[in-house]
Amino acid sequence: MKIFRQNENGYSLLVTFAVIIIFTILGLSLITLTSSGITKNNTREELVQAQDLSDKGIDYAVKDIQALLEKEIKDRPMGKAAFESFLVNTLTAPILSCSQGINIPAENNNKTHVCIEKVELMSNEEKDRYKRLVTFKSTGRVNSKEHITYAQIIIGTDAIPDQLRYAVSTNDEGNLYLHGGVEIQGDIKTDGHLIISEKAHWLKNNVAQWPDSVFPRIIPDSKSVTPKIIMRESEKNIYYVNNTVDYPSHISGNTNYLNSSRYTKFIPSNPASKNELQKRLFLTKNVSLVTKSLPGDNLEITEKVIPLYTNKNYNKNYPSGLSVSYTNHETSKFNRDNITFIHGEKKDCNIFGCKKTLDRGNFNINGSGKTLNLSGTYFINGDFIVNNTNLRSDAMLYVNGNVDIKDSTLNGINSNSTLFIFATGDISISNISVDSATPSMIKGFFYSKQNMIMYGVGSNINLYGGISAKRTILTAVRGNSYNYTYESSKNQKETVITNGVEVPKRNSRLKITYDENLISQYTSFKRDEEEEFITELNEPETINRY
After folding, report:
1. Least buried of 21, 113, 178, 367, by fewest C-beta within 10 Å?
2. What is the dihedral of CA 180, 186, 187, 190, to 10 degrees?
């Protein structure tokens, strides 16, 4: 028995030693694994930090380069050729090359090295000449670990007016008015308030008539998923017309009048505003309401027109204005490279004698119902007036005055023809293809330093391009028009299913479709590059990051 107890005690001791050895081994293994895990976690954390530094290095470099270019064109306005040279010299500066590069210090003696590996011209097209595809290389270092990030980013500008980037826009804090069944395909920018009515309007003896219609419809352009409405980030609102308004007060933009019970107001920065906007727009899905800082209007027209009087950079000169009323006038035979100057002249006399000086001279087109062609590039120190003409055009006009196009039809000479009008004064387009089921088809762009109104009530217009003005008013109904009568609001709201999609049953009598080829069409006209200053850059566009 005693022997058994001794054996039992020896066995217990052996088990105890075995447990101690096992736990020691497990403990050592656990310490080794923990230590290894900590090392791996530290390594992984350092690699993540290094990647973060390399990504931020590229963002830092791009932001600095963009700020330098923007400051330069603001402080020292330059023409397109000068800007292209400055852009290339900046991007290829030795300090930015990968043989040198820039070191950006970070905490704990970590750092980032950023450089430009390659600068490429995207194409020889006019719209690509003033931007470059830049390949950045950024190396982030944390202790002994590093990560390299490459990014291909487009820097520069299209060298076109900002207004050409939208289907509809306003400038200089001007309001945008959308009355009735207007249809817009593409993005909208308003520098002032956005004011929407379910009724269209037209003027009879300068008194507004308000036929029933539907709210406007906005759909995305061919390259977008959703349509965007872009508004200034502060102090600008969306207003919906509730009941009858006084037209002059309505379009004046008077804040006190807009804040009356005649309107419902929404603040764009409030998320609920998007939902309210969505409810009111006609068959509009997933509209994006964006608020941000907007650039100023830097497009100049007077500065393009008046210097021609002394510089004589034109092919044809009409010093007493110009009236065209017959089909074989020489203006129908010009091409896009022909620059025509239309103006007036007067005599200034003093004791030393008399000399001719610049005066105003209008450009009038009245075909008395005939079809007339208009081709070329025109600089007009006066008004441009089209009346009672089936106008077919392929032209660009800079008008230091007003534009009035009425009681006519507007179409291109051929499928590639365009009509661009840039005016310092008001633009009015009315009674175009009146009561016709076939719309006038216009490819081009209309811009006014002042106010623009385009009618689609009796008129029927399809514009492929865009419009922009300080204040823009668009008004339209859907469906048929005949002798100042229009379809009921109920009829205008009818829809049909086409290819599984709900669409309006009746077409809008004013449809504006943003044309993605607008830029290349604009740049195909011959213009004086030295007079066209670069005033704005595109936002840097990241093509690839790896």
Report:
1. 21
2. -30
